[in-house]
């Protein structure tokens, strides 16, 4: 691992889940632990980058020499991301499992138990990584794709639709990879090429991903 791969670059990483409130005590979220994103932030810092980590609610220590910004909702993560991209950054890595939808309203008071059925209306959240890649000061933009089937085909579609420079895709249908696990396996895809990173510790996978990003970023 080259400890100068990203020297002089500002790398932004999103990590963890977002939390979308239903009422003051209830929310919608997902299984993301933040481990993958934190490992990437750590690897980027070890590679010499200045690193900003935009993190949803997780139980992990902040890696050394990493600036961490805590957020809760997808809209907060969107605003924090836009603020750092507005200021200027070189690489943006979207590892966070952002909630695609949020409750259309957050009840001011705890919702009382009443009828047999109640309905929750959800509205779409802004797509953070798509907004980053469409930004006037567009950084080298890397997305993730969490899929349970047709992993590579769906990831390829996300690479194209969100106009990304690279996408790292993981199969999250198994127990030993993806969400929450200490291990992961990725297929990394970019326009014109791909590389399989076989099952390994997330810290190891993170270093390999950083190496790929450094090579592709230099070339673009
Ligand atoms: O946190 P861990 O427990 O370590 O688990 C790691 C992980 C499985 C969460 C991670 O490896 C991963 O796959 N992250 C992406 C999860 C995800 O939400 O994937 P997606 O296919 O739904 O989203 C595609 C891409 O768009 C992602 O880069 C995501 O960050 C981004 N996105 C999605 C929705 C949204 N509103 N804004 C976004 O930026």
From TrEMBL:
Cofactor binding, note field: Binds 1 FMN per subunit.
Q: E.C. number, please?
A: 4.1.1.36, 6.3.2.5
Q: Which UniProt keywords apply?
A: Decarboxylase, Flavoprotein, FMN, Ligase, Lyase, Magnesium, Metal-binding, Multifunctional enzyme
Q: Does the keyword Cytoplasm apply?
A: no
Q: Which GO terms describe its cellular component?
A: phosphopantothenoylcysteine decarboxylase complex
Catalytic activity reads: (R)-4'-phosphopantothenate + L-cysteine + CTP = N-[(R)-4-phosphopantothenoyl]-L-cysteine + CMP + diphosphate + H(+); N-[(R)-4-phosphopantothenoyl]-L-cysteine + H(+) = (R)-4'-phosphopantetheine + CO2
DNA/pantothenate metabolism flavoprotein C-terminal domain: from which residue to which, for each copy? 6-214
Q: What does this protein do?
A: Catalyzes two steps in the biosynthesis of coenzyme A. In the first step cysteine is conjugated to 4'-phosphopantothenate to form 4-phosphopantothenoylcysteine, in the latter compound is decarboxylated to form 4'-phosphopantotheine.
Protein name per the record: Coenzyme A biosynthesis bifunctional protein CoaBC
Span within the parent record: 181 to 400 of 400
């Amino acid at each position: 691992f080259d400890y100068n791969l990203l020297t002089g670059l500002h790398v932004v990483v999103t990590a963890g889940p977002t939390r979308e409130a239903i009422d003051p005590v209830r929310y919608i979220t997902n299984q993301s632990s933040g481990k993958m994103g934190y490992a990437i932030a750590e690897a980027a810092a070890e590679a010499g980058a200045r690193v900003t980590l935009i993190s949803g609610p997780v139980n992990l220590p902040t890696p050394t020499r990493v600036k961490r910004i805590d957020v809760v909702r997808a809209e907060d993560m969107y605003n924090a991301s836009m603020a750092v991209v507005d200021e200027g950054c070189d690489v943006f890595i979207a590892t966070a499992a952002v909630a695609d939808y949020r409750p259309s309203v957050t009840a001011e008071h705890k919702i009382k138990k009443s009828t047999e059925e109640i309905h929750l209306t959800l509205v779409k959240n802004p797509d953070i990584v798509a907004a980053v890649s469409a930004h006037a000061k567009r950084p080298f933009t890397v997305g993730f794709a969490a899929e349970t089937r047709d992993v590579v085909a769906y990831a390829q579609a996300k690479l194209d639709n969100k106009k990304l420079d690279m996408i790292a895709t993981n199969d999250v249908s198994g127990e030993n990879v993806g969400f929450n696990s200490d291990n992961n396996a990725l297929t990394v895809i970019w326009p014109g090429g791909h590389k399989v990173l076989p099952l390994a510790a997330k810290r190891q996978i993170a270093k390999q991903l950083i190496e790929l990003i450094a090579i592709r970023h230099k070339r673009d």
